């Protein structure tokens, strides 16, 4: 008997009929909601051609949307690299046998996970000048990158810790029995298996990080959302159409990121076997998710 038959019973005629009916009803509901949204926009004049015409102009794309997109990707890319480094360092720190490393690492991770990202970005920009009493201008780009690094790095630290702990203990014991030290067991036995288990959660967090760059508009960082909800509507008075176009751009970027990450994950799974269970991204502080406290 195949694994598929054990885990999933083939639906019979009544089950197939019920599934088809539920699918049809769901499609009708979705189409109905879409119709109501489009009708509401049309009644409010939001589908007028003059409001959408700016997005057919090359100067709007080259002068505002593309520069905003570049700023978003620039902040996201740098923050992702720094957050991964932060996560690896403090994730391994939380697994240390030495309390003087483990306890401070845990305190740092829990502290930055507990602060809302928007407040963290604001504190990074306004905090130094407020605490020092001097005029210290922290660039908006730096504030966004530091905030994203600290928050997402703390979440990634929990993902890395959970991923390593998800590898069965017998794997590390086998490594020790071969004469490997703890560093060798971590590098040669645990990490290669844990990376495959952690990949979905890491990808999910990278998508969250990319979307969170939009919070930079609060401190006047000129990224995609800043152009889409402030500068373009100020020039053309088309807030709703602009928000829709910018949302589509975000969706396309995240779909592309997810596609590339899934390709990488599939290649990783084909190239190595792992006994670790898949790790889920941790939720809010105090909520258990995928074995993470």
Describe the structure concisely for a colleague:
It is built from 11 helices and no strands.
List the topology elements.
Layout: H1 3-7, H2 13-43, H3 49-52, H4 58-94, H5 99-114, H6 117-132, H7 140-165, H8 169-177, H9 182-212, H10 224-236, H11 239-271
Helix content: over 70%
Average pLDDT, all residues: 82
Low-confidence stretches: 1-5, 284-293
| Gyration radius from CA atoms, angstroms | 24 Å
CATH class of the largest domain: Mainly Alpha
Measured by DSSP, the beta-strand proportion falls in under 5%
Main pleated-sheet profile: none
Terminus-to-terminus distance: 38 Å
- CATH fold assignment of the largest domain: MetI-like fold
Structural class based on helices, strands and sheet pairing: mainly alpha
Task: Count the domains.
Answer: 2
Q: Total strand count, please?
A: 0
- Indicate the overall shape: flat
Question: How would you characterize this protein structure?
Answer:
It is a single chain. The protein is mainly alpha-helical and 293 residues long. It folds into two domains: 1-45, no CATH class; 54-271, MetI-like (MetI-like fold, Orthogonal Bundle). It is built from eleven helices and no strands. The model is unreliable at 1-5 and 284-293 (pLDDT under 50). Belongs to the binding-protein-dependent transport system permease family. It is found in: Cell membrane. The chain crosses the membrane at residues 21-38, 65-93, 114-134, 140-164, 185-208, 239-261.
């Amino acid at each position: 008997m195949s694994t598929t038959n054990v885990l999933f019973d083939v639906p019979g005629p009544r089950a197939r009929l019920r599934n088809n009916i539920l699918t049809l009803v769901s499609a009708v509901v979705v189409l109905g909601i879409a119709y109501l949204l489009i009708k509401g926009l049309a009644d409010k004049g939001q589908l007028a051609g003059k409001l959408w015409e700016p997005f057919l102009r090359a100067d709007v794309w080259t002068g505002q949307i593309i520069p905003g997109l570049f700023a978003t990707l620039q902040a996201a890319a740098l923050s992702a690299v720094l957050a991964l480094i932060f996560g690896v360092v403090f994730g391994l720190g939380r697994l240390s046998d030495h309390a003087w490393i483990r306890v401070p690492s845990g305190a740092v991770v829990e502290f930055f996970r507990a602060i809302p990202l928007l407040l963290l970005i604001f504190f990074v920009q306004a905090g130094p000048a407020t605490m020092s009493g001097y005029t210290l201008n922290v660039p908006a780009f730096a504030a966004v990158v530091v905030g994203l690094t600290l928050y997402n790095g703390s979440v990634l630290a929990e993902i890395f810790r959970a991923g390593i702990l998800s590898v069965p203990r017998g794997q590390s014991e086998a490594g020790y029995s071969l004469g490997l030290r703890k560093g060798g067991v971590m590098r040669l036995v645990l990490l290669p298996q844990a990376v495959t288990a952690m990949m979905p959660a890491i990808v999910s967090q990278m998508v969250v990080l990319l979307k969170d760059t939009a919070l930079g508009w609060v401190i006047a960082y000129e990224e995609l959302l800043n152009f889409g909800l402030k500068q373009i509507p100020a020039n053309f008075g088309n807030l709703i159409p602009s928000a829709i176009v910018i949302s589509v751009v975000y969706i396309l970027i995240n779909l592309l990121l997810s596609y590339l990450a899934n390709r990488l994950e599939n290649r990783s799974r084909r190239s190595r076997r792992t006994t670790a269970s898949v790790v889920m991204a941790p939720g809010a502080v105090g909520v258990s998710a995928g074995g993470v406290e």
